[in-house]
Amino acid sequence: MRSPKDEEMPLRERGDNDEITLEFCNRRSRIRRNKAEDSTTFMFDYLRDPEEGETLNWRELRKLKAGKKWGVIRHPYILNYINQKLIDCALFYSLHILAFLFFFLLLAWHVFSRNIFKDFLISIFTGVFFMFLVLKGTIKARVTKSVSTWFVVAFCFNMFTYGATLAYVWLPTVFSYDDYHQEVKKIITWFLPIIAIISAWANLLYIMRKSPFGIYIFMMTRILRSFAHVSISENLA
Questions:
Q1: How far apart are CA 124 and CA 169, in angstroms?
Q2: Would the keyword Membrane turn up in this protein's UniProt record (predicted)?
Q3: Which of 28, 99, 142, 227 is 20 to 30 Å from 171 at the Cα level?
């Protein structure tokens, strides 16, 4: 039996309109205010039909983003759905961040003290990351049918990072088999760890955007972008 202390207020009556608009979000949202505890509870209905599934999915969210319907995206109905999905995959993201952080620290440790055990360990990590990257790209291409430019850039940069890492780890061993072009080999082996560390660090920052500290990475990105914009404008002037 409902407590008289709770006052349930429908924002609007529910309907069957499938278009994601503010009216649609309002129809599927309810707000309950508890006057005794001075609290407010939001309730959302995401079920369209038992056979059709939920009203929201990544395709609908992409349509909203492509249509720049930021007012709809900021609606509690949408934000709560996104937040719940992020919570559901929080463990996976946490493991991803920890694994790549360990990989980065291992790579940095390898620069100062290298041995065959670390060579194989870094190679195993790189192989696993490469396998998941290819799997991610394959699923993305098959499911979405269209790949964004940013995804292609990120994919290529990841491939470059893994390639530079493997080259840094194993090229010195390959170079040790002969004595030709020693100066060139020294330059290559001197540059490779720098490239590998910097690219791995950039990848780590990109991955950590999904962590609780992601907001600070976004802030630094915006600041650096603003500095770059000002510098370019002054040089052109």
A1: 12
A2: yes
A3: 99
